[in-house]
Amino acid sequence: MSRARDKAGDTADFESAGIGAYSLHYQFAVGRSAKSVESVSLKSLFERYGDLLWEPGSHKYNVTAFIHELHTLLVAPEFSVFTDEMLDSLIASLRKRGNSNATINRKMAALSKLLRKAFKMGDVHSLPEFRRQKEKSGRIRFLEYDEEDRLFAAIEQHSELYHRFCIFLVDTGARLGEAISLRWNDINDDRVTFWVTKSGKSRSVPLTSRAVTAVARRPEQIGPFVSIDQQQFRAVWNQAKLEIGLATDSDVVPHVLRHTCASRLVRGGIDIRRVQMWLGHQTLQMTMRYAHLASHDLDVCVPILERHK
Fold first, then answer.
1. Checking DSSP bridges between strand 35-37 and strand 25-27, what pairing results, if any?
2. Which residues does 103 contact at the CB level (< 8 Å), separation at least 6?
3. Whether the Cβ atoms of residue 192 and residue 205 lie closer than 8 Å to each other
4. Of 17, 23, 37, 218, which one's alpha carbon is 20 to 30 angstroms from that of 201?
5. CB of 224 within 8 A of CB of 215?
6. Do residues 60 and 178 make contact, with C-beta atoms less than 8 angstroms apart?
7. What are the phi and psi torsion angles at 229 (to 5°)?
């Protein structure tokens, strides 16, 4: 009874001070004094911790868009407790927008990372339970050689730099941000080292002869592709798609060049472990998406199944 009276007294004190009982929470931890938790928003948390949690590059560019979208979808943008109900509401809203489970998982991964940091720093009172949505093993689009020739020729008409950039991407399997972040010291003869990667781990790959030409040194710049703006590049890419009749193919995005590199390695007989190392995948499961392309491995089965008269 005394505990209930104390709680009621605390609430009365808040209300007499002009503070609603719902607007202030306390966070307790062993060995620490109580800390008040004021209302925050996803937008303000990202402004506070975005640069700490994500390095500059295409991944951070995507995360920025994710967090701002989730901020606008919240019924109550200001919060001090992020509940399971709030999380469920966000997922439902994303589904109504046509987001696949794979896309939802990427957005939830960014949200989880931001909220865990905020919770650790005492900005939010509690965290929801994040559960990974089941993903389908969707079709992987890659370019055939004739498609590459037509697309690259159209891009070259707009920009010689973008043309060289595309050649480098398809022959190295690099992500856009990895290639743009390259510096001259990262390129030695016929080999390149990517330091700014999605996994945070560096990797080195050898260069094809045309990739070597694509990164020919230009002293006035600190790297071969540092002057490229991703939005401008994507605009030229989309225009080139339109010109060669691929405008309606939503899978033909710049990342298709990475898929194309991987598919050519697998179809050429390179074992899946080497492909994993080449692409810099953290797990073999990520690379196994391309394993079905190695159909020639099954050719030895046909003679066994043939019926002999």
1. antiparallel
2. 94
3. yes
4. 218
5. yes
6. no
7. -100, 125
pTM of the model: 0.62
User: Residue 147 corresponds to which tokens in the numbers above?
Assistant: 């498609």
Spell out the residues 6+ positions from residue 193 whose beta carbon is closer than 8 angstroms to its own.
186, 187, 202, 203, 204
* Encoded tokens for 114: 């931001």
Burial class of residue 113, CB neighbours in 10 A (0-12, 13-18, 19+): middle
Nearest CA among 175, 185, 172 for reference residue 211:
172
Sign of the Cα torsion 56, 59, 65, 71 reads negative
pLDDT in tens, 184-241: 999 988 899 998 777 778 899 999 999 999 998 776 789 999 999 999 999 999 999 9
